[in-house]
Amino acid sequence: MRTFILMGLSLGLAGCMALPPEPQPLQRPTAELGSDTCGAAGVSNLMGAPRSVVEFVTLEQPKRIVGVEDTMTTDFDPTRVNFTIGASGVVTNISCG
Where are the beta strands (DSSP E) in 1-97? Predict the structure, then answer.
């Protein structure tokens, strides 16, 4: 009988526990509009260049090359230059992040 009472009290106390907070959506930081934190303006001459050219370019800052069917991490690095390669195989966008 005592076991049933203790189990009932345990279950009753478990119902009084606070619920965990609602998970918040991740906020991805963005560079200010128009800011050039990675020096993308310095490599704007690569706009329209084939992917093979961009792969061999050496930069002081990190770079990421992403094609239309490539997977990409969601980390944000304001010093990294992102080269977006379009379906035609050439650079269609250069941005920081």
Answer: 63-67, 81-85, 91-96
